[in-house]
Recover the amino acids of this structure.
């Protein structure tokens, strides 16, 4: 869903179109604003780079001539407890980011492959939340009555749940045979729907009383048609903005869970887990911490900045 | 007002009941059997059966949960006669792993978490709101750019990364603060604060960033309102326009977030406690999960959920005072 959101269709009824016939559709205007926003351009470029890094990880690592699983015990210094030989974590022409202490695995490969996990969980869990949140939120606004009440109370229960604690508990309870990345996507995504549902419901409430919904109803359209074909396209702006704000938080949550040891297990490369492993090495091999930490920092930063810019461009309240 | 609070209190109890039930159900399907873990060797079927009966695991899940709820109100004991393990009310469960009531364990862990939370919260509220105000008032200047950059850095850096770098610099390199651990408040305010200053600073840095961003955007939104223009047109000093008229309106969302954040942290500053090796609620929970100590996990989860739910309620009640437009009907 986030992928399709990047090429939005023009809204059927542009918000505020009745008051003043704008020469540009809101989408065009937002796009124009984004193109002139330097922060948005830089962060988009950074995100594009991250995505390329994740998708082309096997290629990049092949270019370096390494892989994330081979041990290079020979490159370790037995004298200091198997830290990397040489300076800066053993950086060299063969190992661009050096090697991992204890195992001698290639750090560049670990960081590049780690992007796969982070982006996959960050984007997919946001998609899970959007799908649930958008359907449930629009349905609550459209049908109202008892359904609205039930959805509202359920969202309250979810918001009051100590989500992080539950995720930790689930990480232990679910059998190891179940793929961890999928578990993370489901769990993080599932705990994130109430926020989406509330925002979407609020926006949808103002739409269901508009003429175009009445028109569709008069023409005999069913609830399914109205929700998916009439309301949803007009809710694209808040959906995009809220997803953009959520993605960096999700990437952070995934890394935090892995840092706590209940995320993606070894040997799958993961930034959070590598940072956790690096904890014992901060004094002897700082690079071990700085490469995955820097990658995580840049990823969260880029998505946060882009989220800000998208909100400025798409949210009519912040437009000045 | 009273009716509203009564209704919310009932809602709060329902949420806690559901939280407890869900925790129970999740752990009922746990891959390993807690009775087998504490059965000892050799574990004959008879001993296993005895242990199961002792721990109350031979009952159906809903019955176990019911006994838990009973114990919460009236206390309970495990086993019969002299050797029975006592768990006085309010009994949050009994850890067979540690041979003590979960409440006792929470009792030792909670002060650590409270110490971390209170100090950090005070710091981040003051610095976050102040930074946001400077940013908003001096919008577009270098002040604003510097503050925005700083808060973006804070938002994008995970707590544990700041914590680890802080330990490395302030603890190992400059030897200004203890590297980890916790000193009781009763051992003197000096050692207590010196152990906590780094966790406070780290949590405050990361959270203040979020508050600075929120304060800035809220204030900028309020500055566009007509009544601010009116206040300025009346010739009110800028100090009053910003400090009284604008901040008051921007305060509601800040208070909401502050309440939620404190509630969450009181339930266990999981990551901070892990990074600084402090044995608070978060540590207790992680340990309980790691040892498959079901009573600890359920007890701590419920205890944590209580703070989240209570914070929710407090914030909603405060709403009415902060924002006269909100009526608690």
């Amino acid at each position: 869903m986030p992928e399709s959101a990047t090429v939005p269709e023009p809204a059927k009824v542009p918000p505020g179109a009745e008051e003043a016939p704008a020469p540009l559709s809101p989408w065009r205007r937002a796009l124009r604003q984004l193109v002139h926003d330097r922060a948005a351009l830089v962060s988009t470029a950074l995100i594009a780079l991250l995505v390329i890094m994740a998708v082309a990880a096997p290629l990049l690592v092949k270019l370096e001539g390494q892989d994330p699983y081979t041990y290079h015990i020979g490159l370790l210094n037995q004298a200091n407890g198997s830290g990397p030989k040489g300076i800066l974590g053993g950086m060299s022409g063969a190992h661009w980011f050096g090697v991992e202490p204890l195992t001698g695995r290639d750090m560049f490969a670990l960081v590049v492959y780690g992007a796969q996990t982070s982006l996959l969980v960050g984007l997919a869990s946001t998609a899970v939340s959007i799908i649930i949140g958008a359907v449930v939120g629009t349905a609550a606004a459209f049908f109202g009555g008892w359904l609205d009440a039930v959805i509202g109370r359920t969202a309250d229960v979810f918001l009051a749940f100590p989500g992080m604690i539950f995720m930790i508990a689930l990480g232990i309870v679910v059998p190891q045979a179940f793929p961890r990345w999928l578990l993370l996507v489901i769990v993080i995504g599932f705990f994130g729907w109430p926020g989406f549902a509330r925002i979407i419901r609020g926006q949808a409430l103002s739409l269901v009383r508009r003429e175009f919904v009445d028109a569709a109803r008069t023409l005999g359209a069913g609830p399914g048609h109205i929700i998916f074909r009439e309301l949803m396209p007009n809710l694209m702006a808040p959906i995009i903005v809220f997803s953009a704000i959520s993605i960096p938080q999700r990437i952070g949550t995934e890394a935090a869970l892995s840092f706590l040891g209940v995320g993606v297990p070894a040997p799958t490369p993961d930034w959070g887990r590598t940072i956790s492993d690096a904890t014992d090495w901060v004094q002897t091999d700082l690079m071990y911490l700085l490469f995955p930490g820097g990658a995580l920092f840049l990823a969260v930063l880029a998505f946060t900045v882009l989220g800000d810019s998208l909100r400025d461009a798409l949210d009519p309240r912040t437009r000045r | 007002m009273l009716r509203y609070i009564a209704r919310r209190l009932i809602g709060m109890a329902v949420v806690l009941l559901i939280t407890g039930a869900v925790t129970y159900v999740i752990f009922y399907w746990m891959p390993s059997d807690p009775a087998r873990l504490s059965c000892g060797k050799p574990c004959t079927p008879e001993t296993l059966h005895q242990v199961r009966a002792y721990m109350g695991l031979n009952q159906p899940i809903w019955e176990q949960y019911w006994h838990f709820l009973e114990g919460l109100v009236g206390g309970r004991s495990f086993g019969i006669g002299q050797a029975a393990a006592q768990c006085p009310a309010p009994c949050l469960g009994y850890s067979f792993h540690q041979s003590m009531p979960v409440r006792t364990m929470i009792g030792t862990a909670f002060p650590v978490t409270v110490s971390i939370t209170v100090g950090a919260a005070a710091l981040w509220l003051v610095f976050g709101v102040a930074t946001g105000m400077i940013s908003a008032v001096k919008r577009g200047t270098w002040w604003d750019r510097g503050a925005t950059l700083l808060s973006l850095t804070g938002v994008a850096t995970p707590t544990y990364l700041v914590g680890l770098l802080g330990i490395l610099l302030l603890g190992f390199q400059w030897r200004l603060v203890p590297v980890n651990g916790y000193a009781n408040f009763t051992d003197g305010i000096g050692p207590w604060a010196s152990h906590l200053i780094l966790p406070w600073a780290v949590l405050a840095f990361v959270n203040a960033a979020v508050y600075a961003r929120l304060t800035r955007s809220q204030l900028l939104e309020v500055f566009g309102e007509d009544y601010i223009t009116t206040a300025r047109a009346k010739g009110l000093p800028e100090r009053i326009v910003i400090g009284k008229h604008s901040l008051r309106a921007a305060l509601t969302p800040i208070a909401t977030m502050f309440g939620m954040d404190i509630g969450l942290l009181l339930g266990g500053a999981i990551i901070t406690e892990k990074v600084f090796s402090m044995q608070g609620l978060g540590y207790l929970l992680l340990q309980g999960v790691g040892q498959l100590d079901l009573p600890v996990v359920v007890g701590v989860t419920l205890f944590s959920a209580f703070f989240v739910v209570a914070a929710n309620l407090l914030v909603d009640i405060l709403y009415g005072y902060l924002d006269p437009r909100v009526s608690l009907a």
